Amino acid sequence: MDQRTQSYFERVIRERHEVDSFYARTDQVHISHEGQTIWAGLVHVFKLKEHPDSSYCYTWDELNPARPSTHHRTTTILDKGEDISSKQAVEVSIYLRHKQGQGPSS
Q: Could you tell me the pTM of the whole model?
């Protein structure tokens, strides 16, 4: 990950979760169901500094399906003290969006 991208994600984490972080790793994630790809991409993992409930933040950028040509969204998922994988973080995001009526890829 280049420094500009890393700084962007660190800033988003600071704004959303009010904590500093540092880059730990990037994982390639692919989620499919019945042979169809539901989600595929890179998940960036950041170690959180002094967060009261979480040790890591999983974050990624993706196009917003409602406006794919002009907008993207950045997702952040905290581990909440659980030992989760990057794939599980994406699955949580898909579940929450589906629960909110946005569908798996919105």
A: 0.85
